[in-house]
Amino acid sequence: MAFHNSPALARQAQVILYDRLLPLISSVSSPQGSPGGIDVHEVWNSTTMDFITAYLFGLKSGSNFIQNESYRRHWLSLYQSRKNYTFFPQELPRLTRFFKRLHIHLVPTWVDDANNELEAWCKERCDATSANIANKTTGETTDIGNEPVVMKALLAGIEKEENTKGDESVLRTETLKYPELSIASEMIDQLAAGHETAGITLTYLSWHLSRNPDVQDALRSELLKLSPNMSLSQHDGAVKSIPKSKDLDALPMLHAVIMEALRLQAPIPGTQPRMTPYPSCTLGPYGNIPGGVRVGAPAHSVHRNCNVYPEPERWDHKRWMDSEYGYTEKQRRERDKWFWAFSSGGRMCIGSNFAMLEIKLIIAAIYTNFRTYIVNDDGIEQTDGYTCGPASNKLFLGFERVGGKTG
Ligand code: HEM
C-alpha cells in the first residue's frame, strides 16, 4: 500500500482525528467530564475501524464508529460474540458443512446470523463505493478523503488481469468470475484484521503509558517538537495538521513505546500456522520433520526470549531506543529479528506499515493534548487464543487536557 504520502489518507486522518476523536476525548476530559472515565478499548477499536474503512471505501462509505456509539456497540458485540466459535469452521470446515446438511449445528445458528449481518454490512459498503466510483463522486471531483484507495486498486487489478490474461488467468474461477463477491471477501478480511489488532495495541499502549506518567511526559515533549505539531491549544483547533509519516518515523520514543507494546502484548500472540514442505525439513534444532505437518510459533513466546529481551515480562520501551540502551550492532539485529508481532514470510501481515502509521497518528493526537490515567483496569490481562485483547474486553481511562482548555 503506497500510503505514506497519500493525500487521501492524510485527509481521512484529519477528519477522523480532529473532527471525531479529539472532540470525543475533549468532551470526557476531567474534571467536568465523565468521572468513571471512558472505555478506551471500544474507542480505539472504533478509531481503527474508521481509519481502515476510510482507506478501503473512502470517508463517504466508510464507518463512523467514533460518533455513532449505538451502532458501533452493536457491530462490535456481534463481532466479539462469534469469536469463541471459530474452531469448527476453521479447523474442520468439511465436517462442519457435512453436519450442517444433516441439520446438526457444530456452531450455534446465531453465530451464522451474526456473520451474515457483518458480511451484509461490508457488502453494502462495497456496493456504495462501486456506485460512487461509477458516478465519479470519489476523490477526484469532491473531497479527496472520499477516495476509496484500496477498492480502486483492487478494481484496477482485476480489470488488468481480465484484459491481459483473461481465460488463462489463475484467478479466472473465482476472482474474475465473481469479482464483486471476491472484493467483498477481501474487504471484510482487511477490515476485521485491521481494526481489532491495532485497537488492541492502542489499548495496551495507553494502559502502559497511564501507568508511567513520566514516560507520557517525555513522549509529549517529543511530540511537541513536530513542526507543525498536533496541539489543539497552540492553534486553537484551527490548524488540524497531520504530520508527515517521515517526521513521525523520526521520533524515537514514539516508535519505542509502540514496539514495546507490540512485543509484550502482541495482538496476535497465538500460533501462526505453517505447513512443512515435502519431503522433509529442519526447523531450528529439529531435523527430518516430514512434509505436510502443521507447525507454528506463537509471538507471545518468541517475544519472551530472555537472551534477546532481558527481563522479558518488564515493560521497558528503552529496549527500542538504540541511543539509550547501549546495544551492540549484533544485539540490535537479534532484537529486531525476534520481533514477530506482524509475523514474517509469505503470510506476513499486509497491513503492518498502515498499522504503524495509524497508531503513530492516533497516539500523537491523543498524547500531545491529554494526560491519561487509569480509572479501572480490572481484567486487563491478555486472553489466550489467536487475536487477543483484555479478558474484560474493556479498559477505563480518564483524560486530562494539557496545555489548554478542558472540554
Ligand atoms: C498492530 C496491528 C496489526 C498486527 C499486530 C497484525 C498482525 C498480523 C499477523 C500476526 C498476521 C498473521 C500472519 C501469519 O499468519 O503469519 C496478520 C495477517 C494479516 N493482516 Fe495484520 N496486523 C495488524 C494490522 C493490520 C492492518 C491495519 C491490516 C489492514 C489491511 C491488516 C491486514 C492483514 C491481513 C489481510 C492479513 C492476512 C494476510 C494473509 O494471510 O495473506 N493487519 N496480521
From TrEMBL:
PROSITE patterns to which the protein is assigned, alphabetical: CYTOCHROME_P450
Keyword Manganese: no
Protein's UniProt keywords contain Ion transport: no
Cofactor(s) needed: heme
Family matches, as SUPFAM superfamilies: Cytochrome P450
Pfam families: p450
UniProt entry keywords in alphabetical sequence: Heme, Iron, Metal-binding, Monooxygenase, Oxidoreductase
Residues the entry annotates as binding heme: C349
InterPro entries on file: Cyt_P450, Cyt_P450_CS, Cyt_P450_E_grp-I, Cyt_P450_sf, Cytochrome_P450_monoxygenase
Domain of life: Eukaryota
GO molecular function, one term: oxidoreductase activity, acting on paired donors, with incorporation or reduction of molecular oxygen
Family indicated by similarity: Belongs to the cytochrome P450 family.
Name of the protein described by the UniProt record: Cytochrome P450
Species annotation: Venustampulla echinocandica
